[in-house]
Amino acid sequence: QVRLVESGGGSVQAGGSLKLSCVITEGNIFSINNMGWYHQPPGKVRELVASIITGGDTTSYADSVKGRFTISLDYALNTMYLRMNGLKPEDTGVYYCNAKKIDRDTRDYWGPGIRVTVSS
Q1: What is the 3-state secondary structure (H, E, C) of the chain?
Q2: What are phi and psi of 8, to 5 degrees?
Q3: Rounded to 5 degrees, what are φ and ψ at 91?
């Protein structure tokens, strides 16, 4: 079982920065194959914005956030981060932390989500 809890959201003006955290409160980061951050704008579907492969730390980003967002892991703290710089109004929405355990099948675990509001 894996339990995830996000923090660090809030309201900022365009051009500002936020750093989201996702703490693994149950489970261990070394038992997880891949972690990511998903963004769900108001009234729209949830989309992957950044992902990282645990162990090797290979990262991937959606085109919309490349050069502005940075995903990282702290293995000692069982925590994943998303540093968001140069925030835009279209970054507004709920951000969800995701963890994937890949064995014979893939199991997805989600945090409850955290809201980010960027005003123009």
Answers
A1: CCEEEEECCEEEECCCCEEEEEEEEECCHHHCCEEEEEEECCCCCCEEEEEEECCCCCEEECCCCCCCEEEEEECCCCEEEEEECCCCHHHCEEEEEEEEEECCCEEEEECCCEEEEEEC
A2: 100, 0
A3: -80, -5
Per-residue model confidence as pLDDT tens digits over 21-41: 999 999 889 999 999 999 999
Tokens found for residue 112:
């409850």
For residue range 4-22, list pLDDT tens digits in order: 999 999 999 999 999 999 9
Token output for 26: 């149950």
